[in-house]
Write a structure and sequence with these properties.
GO terms for molecular function: ATP binding; ATP hydrolysis activity; flippase activity; magnesium ion binding. InterPro entries: ATPase_P-typ_cyto_dom_N (IPR023299), ATPase_P-typ_P_site (IPR018303), ATPase_P-typ_TM_dom_sf (IPR023298), ATPase_P-typ_transduc_dom_A_sf (IPR008250), HAD-like_sf (IPR036412), HAD_sf (IPR023214), P-type_ATPase_IV (IPR006539), P-type_ATPase_N (IPR032631). The strands form nine sheets. The protein has a nine-stranded antiparallel sheet, with helices on both faces. The chain has a seven-stranded mixed sheet with strand order 17-32-31-30-18-28-29, sandwiched between helices. Helix 3 runs parallel beside helix 9, helix 24 packs parallel to helix 29 and helix 24 runs antiparallel to helix 30. The radius of gyration is 37 Å and the shape is elongated. It is built from 36 helices and 34 strands. It is α+β, with helices and mostly antiparallel strands and about 1150 residues long.
Length: about 1150
């Protein structure tokens, strides 16, 4: 049986401050991810009934029994999920990434759509139009647009959901993951994905070693090391044996911790994270392995860190909802005023006019009440239902433009950009904060050996070396000549150290890419690591094979910042080789060591070039000295308490009086274009935060490499913030940990202080953060700054952050697809983020804002004509236009030109958008669409409606036609007003268009032509004969529009409507121009003339040593478990060694 404790283990025994300890964190709990899922009772309350198994009593609330699915369905493992219904608390392994199914699609989609105020309003309006006493318009004028809106949106949502489902379920079906349950024993094959969180029982490698690739978990392509327990390796090799023990565990979201105990045959065996293979990883270099499913589906650690799928809405969406509320309030007030007018008019005029008698005995107040609802129907187009359909069409088109953009296509991996959502495009033009992962997002996670200094000399055709790596790019022929001459002993010693002082066990793929780069460098310079056993290591020194006896391996950890190996040479000499950060090596150098100053100067140069450095040194040890030290080392290695601290003290005693050989410089390769992209985004006033699991030194080094940090910046570290918190903390009589908040109020105040302090900085790098903490940082900025955020990452550890941000971007490539599957947008390289934001995001925002401003204007201009007409028809809710014109106005007559503006318009082209990043600023400030713009559109619409109504009204008041007849009838007036409005709104959008194409010109002319074509058809006698009650304007258009006087009226109306707009645009572009291109060009020239910043000379920066940030596998190598043959009860069997062996591992599962 396995039991697990969720308490943090104390970091006791460390010699100094531990950068793995976090001041406070919510990471132990996953309440935000799955509230209530883990809480079966109150804290400290009674646990579920204890389970008896193999004579043991267990008090845990989570138990698993191998190969026994019925065990998981026992009553004590049931939990309530709906009223009194219960189900097993053990999750199945099927993961649902889709939102709908066949039964829930229609009700759930309609429920989501009717959350939009406009849709709900038009549903109520449709119900009102069915009431004969109220309606003044046919019911189909509302039903047709409403059904069209709901149908198009539903189809779009369904397509998006099918795409989302197909991107994941295909994987499940091929692997049959959905059929796996907790307690199953599974056999995994080489290169297979791990389907659940599995306890490793045994593998085909010696001593149940198993190599896993965690790319989809943490974005790292290097391999990690897992190992089965000795008891499961030696005694549970047959399938019938695998079912003879049980397991007990409790699910949580800690990727870096697992503490448990396995009980088998009355014995207890400890378990830790090295025994667990997590979902999202992949089996490598292991033919097959067996494991027991501990967590499945939603209970797996990767899913617990994934966060909830959030319904994301843009700021413009939220603003549109508020504006619809505002329009609705205006509508109510206008209708109430007109209803009151109707009551007064009927009291004073209508009741006394015999020809208005309708035979109904209704009071003036009741008639005013009915008039109110009549005007609600007549003026309903103030709340534009077609607005939402048009917005969805525009967003769909903008998403397709992103998908089709060849400049965001990554040819090397045949990966195009992909807009995985169609609802967030304009939000890309309003980003204020970008939160980026580091490994695999900013960097390639590829280390390259760039420079070295040997014995004071700062230094490759490899045809002379048969072991050379063809991909190695270091070129310095003088160094090659020095090595091949074999005269410079210090140079030979330098590369001998690199080939011997490491923990790589075979070949040249290590868990740390830094270590792999160093060993590969030694290989290419003729010192080739060939093999190792528990006690020996064999290398080829310039084609001469040499074997050295390994006496001790002094492991690396984040406090020591170095590693050493003690070897006995074939001639009997004992030598210690050491490599580590200069900050710790220089303290341990012998006073007689040479080249210290020259090497220090070279290290400064390397650091300024943002390279990761290591110092190499050695020490000759006498046999007597080693024997005395070996005894102390043995005593420390078996100490029962504080063993690590005891070993560190013993290591200190031997690692002194070292002799300097030189130093290496490794480049952590950035992706192409990262510095330029960050610089451009910074000029656009977009603040970039890097959230990484790496240690501080590595993260800072990358910050300088990608130019996120610059030389003229003042760097503040986390210790400064801790000190600030401690200073702000009030004095307390009770001593307690000052890093921990006292209560929720203090915790919130610290969060506010942190956000305020961090947001004052130009750049922020958060180190050693877990996936949950990444999401928490994003949430804090969203909560306290109300800013639009974007998260970008490449691994499954970034999923929660991607889901939390307003926009989530996934980097697709070798690091896996988990981030992409949870993202809103995906592409292959970080540099494409510049084009996504500065081009597509900016264009989408400008287009959407222009579309909305115009759309509100044209609807106000159209609707408010009814309002002015009410003053001349006794406030009787009589419409000013023909019914079919009202129905088709937003659908046919004025929709196409504004749609094309929303899809195609550009104020400047893509090159200028990227050249002048300051053009992005209006979107961040929301300057192009806000309440100010809304009320400008409202007043513009009021003015246009006044002109459209009163000029034709004045022209019709006392006129005589050319044929002696007066065209002063209501129907002719309606045709003239409608024609004036169509010309006005279509020419208005022409004035608003910045980027003219043939399609735009055709759309404007086509809209006007469609209006006249349809109008003449529905005013014809033929259609009136077929539908006499529906088409009542028989012959009106041909009769009215043959009068030149009425054409002059239309021209006058259109001219007066457009004149103020033309005048204002002239003033804005000539007298009050916004920041024009000339200004931006002047700024660019000033930037070019700025002097280069002073080059830094900070010794502290060189502490970006080329190691991962936790201890390595020296204990594993020294024990020989990865090398010895496996002994079985039935005999002895030779097992081939795996291809890869890792070095520095540590907290890799939460790294980045």
């Amino acid at each position: 049986l396995i039991t697990m404790s969720r308490e943090r283990s104390d970091s006791q025994g460390s010699l100094g401050p531990d950068d793995e300890v976090m001041p406070y964190s919510d990471d132990e709990t996953d309440d935000e991810l799955d509230p209530g899922s883990d809480e079966e009772g109150p804290p400290g309350g009674p646990q579920p009934e204890e389970i008896k198994s193999t004579g043991e009593r267990l008090g845990s609330g989570w138990s698993v029994k191998a190969n026994d699915r019925a065990f998981c369905n026992l009553p004590e493992f049931q939990k309530k999920y709906l009223l009194c219904l219960k189900k097993s608390k053990y999750a199945g392994n099927g993961i649902k990434t889709y939102k709908y199914n066949a039964l829930t699609f229609i009700p759930l989609n309609l429920f989501e759509q009717f959350k939009r105020v406009a849709n709900l309003y038009f549903l109520a309006l449709l119900i009102l139009q069915i009431i004969p006493e109220i309606t003044t318009l046919p019911w189909y004028t509302t039903l047709v647009p409403l059904v069209l809106v709901l149908g198009i949106t539903a189809i779009k949502d369904l397509v998006d959901d099918l795409v989302r489902d197909s991107s994941t379920s295909r994987w499940f079906q091929e692997s049959k993951w959905m059929n796996i349950h907790v307690g199953d024993v599974v056999r995994l094959k080489k290169n297979g994905h791990i389907p659940a969180d599995i306890l490793l029982l045994s593998s085909s490698n010696p001593n149940s070693l198993c190599y896993v690739e965690t790319a989809e978990l943490d974005g790292e392509t290097n391999l990690k090391f897992k190992m089965g327990l000795k008891v499961t390796d030696e005694r549970l090799q047959e399938e019938r044996q695998l079912a003879q023990f049980d397991v007990c565990e409790e699910p949580n979201n800690r990727l870096d911790k697992f503490t448990g105990t396995m009980c088998w045959r009355k014995d207890r065996f400890p378990l830790d994270l090295d025994n667990m293979m997590l979902r999202g990883c992949r089996i490598r270099n292991t033919d097959e392995c067996h494991g027991l499913v501990i967590f499945a589906g939603a209970d797996t650690k990767i899913m617990r860190n994934g966060g909830k799928t959030r319904f994301k809405r843009t700021k413009i969406d939220e603003l549109m909802n508020y504006m619809v509320y505002s329009i609705f309030v205006i509508l109510i007030l206008v209708c109430a005023g007109l209803a009151i007018g109707n009551s007064f008019w009927y009291e004073e005029v209508g009741s006394r006019a015999w020809y208005l008698k309708d035979g109904k005995d209704q009071t003036a107040s009741y008639r005013g009440f009915l008039s109110f609802w009549g005007y609600i129907i007549v003026l309903n187009t103030m709340v534009p239902i077609s607005l939402y359909v048009s917005v969805e069409v525009i967003r769909l088109g903008q998403s397709k433009f992103i998908n089709w953009d060849l400049q965001m296509y990554y040819q090397e991996k045949d990966t195009p950009a992909k807009a995985r959502t169609t609802t967030l495009n304009e939000q890309l033009g309003q980003i204020e904060y970008v939160f980026s992962d580091k490994t695999g997002t900013l960097t390639q996670n590829i280390m390259a050996f760039k420079k070295c200094t040997i014995a004071g000399r700062t230094f490759v055709d490899f045809s002379w070396n048969k072991y050379a790596d063809s991909k190695f790019e270091y070129v310095d022929h003088s160094l090659v000549a020095c090595i091949r001459s074999k005269k410079d002993k210090e140079t030979l010693e330098f590369f001998k150290l690199l080939s011997l002082c490491h923990t790589v066990m075979l070949v040249y793929q290590a868990a740390s890419p830094d270590e792999g780069a160093l060993v590969t460098a030694a290989r290419n310079f003729g010192f080739v690591f060939l093999s190792r056993t528990q006690d020996t290591i064999t290398i080829s020194e310039m084609d001469q094979e040499m074997t050295y006896e390994v006496l001790a391996l002094l492991d690396f950890n984040s406090d020591r910042k170095r590693m050493s190996i003690i070897l006995r040479f074939p001639d009997g000499r004992i030598r210690l080789y050491c490599k580590g950060a200069d900050t710790v090596i220089y303290e341990r150098l012998s006073p007689n060591s040479r080249h210290k100053e020259v090497t220090q100067t070279a290290l400064d140069i390397f650091a300024n070039q943002t390279l990761r450095t290591l110092c190499l040194c050695y020490k000759d040890i006498s046999k007597q000295e080693f024997d005395a030290w070996a005894k102390k080392h043995k005593d420390a290695s078996v100490a029962m308490g504080n063993r690590e601290a005891a070993l560190d003290r013993v290591y200190e005693q031997i690692e002194n009086n070292l002799m300097m050989i030189g130093a290496t410089a490794i480049e952590d390769k950035l992706q192409d274009g990262v510095p330029e992209t960050i610089a451009k985004l910074a000029k656009a006033d977009i603040k970039i935060w890097v959230l990484t699991g790496d240690k501080k030194e590595t993260a800072e080094n990358i910050g300088y490499s990608c130019e996120l940090l610059t030389d003229d910046m003042q760097i503040h570290y986390g210790d400064d913030i801790k000190f600030f918190f401690c200073e702000q903390k009030p004095a307390s009589a009770t001593p307690q940990d000052s890093t921990q908040p006292i209560d929720d109020w203090e915790k919130e105040s610290r969060q506010v202080d942190f956000v305020n302090m961090a947001c004052e900085c130009e750049a922020v790098i958060c180190c050693r953060v877990t996936p949950k903490q990444k999401a928490n940082v994003v949430s804090l900025v969203k909560k306290y700054k109300k800013a639009v955020t974007l998260s970008i990452g490449d691994g499954a550890n970034d999923v929660n952050m991607i889901k939390t941000a307003d926009i989530g971007v996934g980097i697709s490539g070798q690091e896996g697809m988990q981030a992409v599957m949870s993202s809103d947008y995906a592409f292959a390289q970080f540099r494409y983020l510049e084009r996504l934001l500065l081009v597509h995001g900016r264009w989408s925002y400008i287009r959407m804002c222009k579309f909305l401003r115009y759309f509100f204007f044209k609807n106000f201009a159209f609707t408010l004509v009814h309002f002015w007409y009410s003053f001349f028809n006794g406030f009787s809710a009589q419409v000013a236009y023909e019914d079919w014109f009202i129905t088709l106005y937003n659908v046919m007559y004025s929709s196409l030109p504004v749609l094309l503006v929303g899809l195609l318009d550009q104020d400047v082209n893509d090159k200028l958008s990227r050249k002048f990043p300051k053009l992005y600023l209006p979107g961040q400030k929301g300057a192009l669409f806000n309440y100010k713009n809304f009320f400008i559109s409202l007043f513009h619409g009021i003015f246009t409606s006044l002109v459209v109504f009163f000029i034709p009204y004045g022209a019709f008041l006392q006129t005589m036609g050319q044929d002696g007849e007066a065209p002063s009838d209501y129907q002719s007036l309606a045709v003239v007003m409608a024609s004036s409005l169509i010309f006005t709104v279509n020419l208005q959008i022409s004035l608003e268009t910045s980027y003219w194409t043939f399609v735009n010109c055709f759309a404007v002319l086509c809209s006007i032509a469609i209006y006249f074509g349809i109008m003449f058809d529905i005013h014809s006698a033929g259609i009136h004969v077929i539908f006499p009650s529906t088409f009542t304007f028989t012959g009106v258009a041909p009769n009215a529009l043959r009068q030149p006087y009425l054409w002059l009226t239309i021209i006058l109306t259109v001219g007066i409507s457009l004149l103020p707009v033309i005048f204002i645009q002239f003033l804005c572009k000539t007298i009050w121009p916004s920041r024009n291109r000339k200004k931006y060009e002047e700024e660019e020239e000033e930037e070019k003339k700025k002097p280069a910043p002073f080059q830094r000379d900070r010794r502290s920066r060189r502490s970006a040593y080329a190691f991962s940030h936790s201890r390595g596998y020296a204990d594993l190598i020294a024990s020989g478990r990865s090398i010895r043959r496996r002994n079985y009860a039935s005999g002895t069997e030779n097992i081939p060694l795996g291809l890869i062996s890792p070095t520095w591992h540590g907290r890799n599962l939460c790294k980045d």
